[in-house]
Amino acid sequence: MRIACGGIAHKPWRARAAEDVLRGRAPDAAAFAEAAEAELTDATPLPDNGFKIPMLRRTMVSVLRDLTEEVR
After folding, report:
1. What percent of the chain has pLDDT over 70?
2. Angle ∠(59,63,68) on CA atoms, nearest 5
3. What is the DSSP string of 30-45?
4. Confidence category of residue 10, pLDDT binned at 50, 70, 90
5. How buried is 46 (Cβ within 10 angstroms: 0-12 exposed, 13-18 middle, 19+ buried)?
6. pTM of the entire predicted model
7. Which of 51, 49, 43, 46 lies closest to 18 in space, CA to CA?
8. In 3D, which of 55, 59, 64 has the Cα closest to residue 29?
9. Environment class of residue 31 by beta-carbon count within 10 Å: exposed (0-12), middle (13-18) or buried (19+)?
10. What ranges in the chain are assigned the alpha helix state H?
11. pLDDT digit string (tens) for 21-50?
């Protein structure tokens, strides 16, 4: 699985840390939350966009959950 984040920074980026956490794991809420945390560990917001980190965390977990529910 490949994960990309767009619309949150100056350019889209590949979420390799999140992919690494999810590789070989069962798709569940705990794994998705851990993947989002891994991806955002080093995130540093600019003065007026600190809201983007928790927004991306919630969005990543929600989208991964929605995608895996469709597969089941």
Report:
1. 96
2. 150
3. HHHHHHHHHHHTT---
4. confident
5. exposed
6. 0.87
7. 43
8. 64
9. middle
10. 16-22, 29-40, 52-71
11. 999 999 999 999 999 999 999 999 999 999
